[in-house]
Design a protein that fits this description.
Chain lengths: ~575, ~200
């Protein structure tokens, strides 16, 4: 029998991007929170600028959970599963993946909240791709704006506003939705190469601007500004300038005295009582079983674990998994088509050895519905992102653009000249959910505890491929304008595989027949269960997920706090 | 100390490979990144030494692939070119390696191309990785590609100096900065790049 612990108000499973944010408004509202985190605390000392360790072999976490439960994946139900990798780069430690993520901190476009109605209004209902299960979000951008603002100021985001209350500032993104005020910090600095790229974008009539980053451009909340040392990508920050939840919202929540952080707590299942209410969670620490009772459970273990925990938590009330009586857990799954980028070779050095991937120039002219799709055969688009990020092993692995073999003296001469002359753009593209893309439990593969891992069955469809080809074309045009002497496009389409931008599986919406959680992120079927993370998002838009994930987490937490008596008293 | 292990100049004890395996591997890496007019290559960088050490740790899952792959390569050199790999001329060594790279070489467990890709990947690690791990000796790899060394702070002036091609390498490893914990990582197998954000 598990050791039964003292009752608490809220238990949060996972203190990463989402859980680490939700703890703060709850604790500040006087609610007792237990944060169960599978990983441990890490400190600046753990964040060595070491490419071999961070980028090649994994990263300095002491608990290897994500790597041991990597989902299997296949493009569709009639294909076999692909060989499983050995690393899934999600972090297991307090602060989660915000410790070593890139920190690009984007808001979504208003269009992303209303893909169905806006597409129908502008181009007709026939333009929704066949087989897509996309729905409008249950609320619009304006509803989330206040929470974007809270996160931008609460964790700290550097950037240049493009639209404050409808006033367009050409230094920022003219396509962005109105924000109530500018960013709390100016943007990260640019390099000569980024300046040059921005200039070329302007010559083409594009609207370049510095991207928003959860990295300090100057001292913020008594933490250091960024040192631009070049090891931010998959590395933690040695001066705490990256605004992970470990250094921002979590310590502030702890300071209230109402967040108890329990590390090395690996949650295995969620308990349901005889009334079909959630009663708490079971977890293991070093093989010892504990039961943490709670009035409300918030699951925040990242998309795959959120889905898996629900599917593994079977009870009389929920025989097919918690909150799955409508068969929606695992449905509406998708991930960003992020690898279909474009690489360019330049005739001179780009001086990119030092910097960070959140330091760069963006173009949003071709993102989402920022341009007219009347004459096009797809909906959505991509954010073009050119950034500074290079380390030696990665540089040596660069494409030779057909100009040299892969080894030998000719390669050595090529790499000596060109190691600092390439650039690879990151194109973040709209991806939609489809009826036959989903997550379930793998029938064979298990994690070291004996629980089945997730199985991802998903592939990029025609709309996603067309978005990729179109945006790659724009990116190629931009590179050529800047003087690139060779261009290479990465393949588009194919299997989705396992992703660091995984969406859906516990989608949010008003209709319980097609959505797992309601507009507040609480389960339709078990209302004292909440889900935090991109697993609740029904669209991705053309921007990275985390700021939206955190805004949603803040909103769910605030809703809980405001309605605490009603929601917590369901159990009697 | 990044270079402590070789300070004595004495031959270093091998940690994983046999002396013969080490010879073959050193000859291979010497063709992958040769010593030539562009300066020192993987041999001077100690890439084989890096691999030997890593096979006792992070790369241990590939130990068997090295054992059988190196033996198969030597056998293939013997059967197709009449000499062991080490005895062949550089041109013949290259032609053997091309066969291995393209999967044309026989006698390998599985595809010889997979063995080649693995060795090339690890040769990059041993030539361009942090010297702390035993390769990139005397910063040979970083000097080759113009990487100016690990810094914990890069000021706007440093960046402009780099842009003016004036930033000199500081020849520093991550662990020359005394602040970082060396082995908090339980090193797992290759992550295969860092293109996901
Ligand atoms: C290299 C990299 C770069 C990225 N860059 C960006 C970027 O620039 N911008 C952006 O928007 N997004 C980026 N992302 C994606 C971003 O990291 C995720 O969107 C975000 O972290 C998801 O938040 P989360 O809280 O759902 O998961 P996480 O932040 O991963 O947190 C989940 C936490 O839950 C814990 N946990 C999991 N299961 C359990 C369990 N059973 N019991 C207890 N604890 C558990 C984990 O240990 C972890 O700490 C990046 C991701 C990676 C890997």
């Amino acid at each position: 029998m598990a050791n039964r612990l003292k009752d608490t108000d809220v238990v949060i499973v996972g203190l990463g991007a989402a859980g680490g944010v939700a703890a703060l408004p709850l604790a500040q509202a006087g609610i007792e929170v237990v944060g169960l985190e599978a990983g441990t605390w890490l400190t600046r000392k753990d964040f060595a600028p070491d490419e071999l360790r961070n980028n090649v072999r994994g990263w300095p976490q002491s608990v290897q959970k994500a790597n041991q439960e990597i989902p299997t994946s296949r493009p569709n139900a009639s294909s076999p599963s692909a060989p499983r990798g050995t690393v899934h780069p999600m972090q297991n430690s307090v602060g989660g993946t915000t410790l070593h993520y890139w920190g690009q901190s984007w808001r979504l476009n208003p269009w992303d909240f209303k893909v169905v109605s806006e597409t129908t209004r502008r181009y007709g209902a026939s333009r929704i791709p066949k087989g897509s299960t996309v729905e409008d979000w249950p609320f619009d951008y304006d509803e989330l704006e206040a929470y974007y603002d809270k996160v931008e100021y609460g964790v700290g985001v550097s950037g240049q506003a493009g639209n404050v209350d409808g006033r367009i500032d050409p230094r920022g993104n003219p396509f962005e939705a109105p924000r109530r005020r500018g960013y709390p910090m100016p943007p990260l600095r640019w390099t000569e190469f980024i300046e040059k790229m921005a200039g070329s974008a302007k010559s083409l009539g594009f609207h370049p601007f510095p991207g928003p980053a959860a990295v300090n451009s100057r001292s913020y909340q008594n933490r250091s500004p960024c040192m631009y040392h070049g090891f931010c990508n998959r590395g933690g920050c040695h001066v705490d300038a990256k605004n992970s939840t470990m250094v921002t919202t979590i310590p502030r929540a702890q300071a209230t005295g109402r967040l108890k952080v329990v590390t090395r707590a690996h949650v295995t299942t969620i308990e349901v009582d005889a009334n079909g209410q959630v009663a708490g969670v079971n977890y293991l620490t070093d093989g010892v079983e504990y039961f943490q009772p709670a009035k409300v459970v918030l699951v925040a273990g990242y998309t795959y674990e959120n889905v898996r925990l629900l599917l593994l938590s079977k009870s009389k009330a929920f025989p097919n998994g918690l909150s799955n009586n409508h068969g929606q857990v695992g449905r509406h799954y998708f991930s960003h088509n992020m690898l279909a980028g474009v690489s360019a070779l330049f005739p001179s050095n780009t001086s990119s050895w030092y910097g960070l991937p959140a330091q760069g120039v963006a173009v949003d002219d071709w993102a989402d519905d920022n341009f007219d799709h009347s004459g096009l055969d797809f909906i959505g688009g991509g954010n073009l992102w050119v950034y500074s990020d290079r380390r030696p092993i990665g540089a040596a692995g660069m494409s030779t653009f057909g100009r040299a073999p892969a080894w030998g003296s000719a390669w050595k001469a090529f790499i000596k000249e060109n190691a600092d002359r390439s650039n690879t753009a990151y194109i973040q593209k709209t991806t939609l959910p489809y009826e036959d893309n989903y997550i379930d439990l793998d029938p064979v593969v298990k994690d070291p505890l004996g629980f089945p891992v997730c199985r991802v069955t998903a592939e990029f469809k025609e709309n996603e491929r067309r978005v990729s080809l179109f945006t790659q074309g724009k990116m190629e045009q931009w590179y050529r304008e800047a003087g690139a002497v060779a261009i290479q496009r990465a393949p588009v389409g194919g299997a989705m595989g396992i992703s660091t931008h995984a969406y859906g599986g516990t989608r949010m919406g008003d209709n319980p027949a097609t959505n797992v959680v309601d507009r507040w992120g609480l389960s339709h079927e078990a209302p004292n269960l909440g889900v935090l993370g991109a697993s609740t998002m029904g669209t991705s838009g053309a921007h990275n997920p985390t700021l939206t994930v955190q805004a949603l987490a803040w909103r769910t937490a605030e809703h809980l706090a405001k309605n605490w008596n009603r929601i917590s008293n369901r159990r009697s | 100390m990044a270079r402590a292990f070789q300070a004595s100049g004495a031959p270093e004890a091998l940690e994983s490979l046999s002396a013969h395996e080490m010879e073959v591997l050193d000859a291979i890496v010497g063709r992958l990144i040769p010593t030539d007019a562009n300066g020192p290559g993987a041999v001077e960088a100690g890439a084989a030494r890096y691999i030997d050490r890593a096979l006792a740790g992070a790369l241990s899952p590939t130990r068997e692939a090295y054992r059988s792959g190196l033996a198969a390569l030597d056998r293939y050199a013997q059967s197709s070119r009449g000499k062991t790999f080490k005895e062949l001329s550089p041109t013949d060594q290259d032609s053997v390696l091309i066969d291995v790279e393209t999967g044309a070489a026989t006698g390998f467990t599985g595809s010889s191309a997979a063995f080649f890709a693995m060795v090339l990947n690890h040769t990059h690690q041993g030539t361009f990785g942090d010297p702390y791990y035993g390769g990139n000796r005397d910063f040979a790899g970083w000097d080759l590609i113009g990487y100016p060394g690990v810094r914990t702070m890069v000021s706007p002036t440093d960046q402009r100096t780099l842009e003016a091609h004036q930033l000199k390498s500081n020849h520093k490893s991550a662990y020359d900065y005394g602040t970082f914990t060396k082995s908090s990582a339980r090193l797992s197998a290759d992550a295969g790049g860092d293109r996901q954000a």
